[in-house]
């Protein structure tokens, strides 16, 4: 699907979709339990991949008419899957499920689409091997397809913290149901740390104790996943909130209200402060869970995305509209997502007339030297690139066509309907 966006003035109310990060963890945690009900879950391409994995491990995921997920778990001991686990495009699924596979008494094979098969899994494979399992890349390059044989019983392991926080999440979630538990020593500074905070928050909600230590993290073994009253409710997603929030900041003199913006451990809540620092009129009522935003005279700022890699595309688009330079730093790990998001945003914004300077660990957007003009841009099979470029189309001169726009289904299936509901002038072409 291609989507063509014309300059628009937005107003109205949008609701945040549920958090993808929390939904992945909630589905798998319910799998580790003997069962649980997950309310307000995001049902997207990525989270469906995690649900399929739970079913292949011997659980069952039933999505009811109201969107609630009724999950029967495998009670801490996954079965050996009868088929290959296809994680599709979901890196979170692959990493969390790889550790779960190490608990099964047998061999599990995991794969994914072309993009996922290019993403690094080596440190997690090495960690599983150090814990007594067998874990290999079929091509010997640390990338999927992966072959994992268990069971592991726990122990102590060291792992880098600057490649993916998902390795730590995967080991903590699996470690709770091992005999010995798992102690994780970080070899390098942890990047994307708020995502591990999300994991710790969710584990606590499921009755599992895990903790930060002087050297990393630890979780005791022999625990059971039991959420209070057998239920867990997923909060709104601040990665997704960043798009209507930025849309209001660049294209709404009358104001946009975002509902479902309740406080949580998500690092991407930083987008509220970023938009405010750049000069938009923004107010977050944390008690009510609403954010109100209006367009302001945006000025470029410097922002580190060390802990908030998913915000880089949104910030880059804001920088394209702002006066002066917007410098996005500590960004090297953002190159290892669904695509190299640093280069992707530099190249695609360049097609719209935006000047940028790309370095290995940073992206500088020269808003004051740029004139946004409509063009055809490529979504690159990356939901966050697609949504960020669509925002640019709201204020570019002329029509902007985003190719391959259907990939928003990964995290925000109704994104373009939300934009249209706020008054965006857009046309979908199947």
Automatic annotation (TrEMBL):
3-phosphoshikimate binds at residues 20-21, 25, 164-166, 192, 310, 337. It comes from Halopiger xanaduensis (strain DSM 18323 / JCM 14033 / SH-6). It comes from the Archaea. GO terms for biological process: amino acid biosynthetic process; aromatic amino acid family biosynthetic process; chorismate biosynthetic process. Phosphoenolpyruvate binds at residues 20, 91, 119, 166, 341, 384. This is 3-phosphoshikimate 1-carboxyvinyltransferase. Belongs to the EPSP synthase family. InterPro entries: Enolpyruvate_Tfrase_dom, Enolpyruvate_Tfrase_sf, EPSP_synthase, EPSP_synthase_CS, RNA3'P_cycl/enolpyr_Trfase_a/b. Its main location: cytoplasm. GO terms for cellular component: cytoplasm. Monomer. Pathway: Metabolic intermediate biosynthesis; chorismate biosynthesis; chorismate from D-erythrose 4-phosphate and phosphoenolpyruvate: step 6/7. The keyword Acetylation does not apply. The active site is at 310 (proton acceptor). Keywords: Amino-acid biosynthesis, Aromatic amino acid biosynthesis, Cytoplasm, Transferase. Residues 7-419 form the Enolpyruvate transferase domain. GO terms for molecular function: 3-phosphoshikimate 1-carboxyvinyltransferase activity. Its EC number is 2.5.1.19.
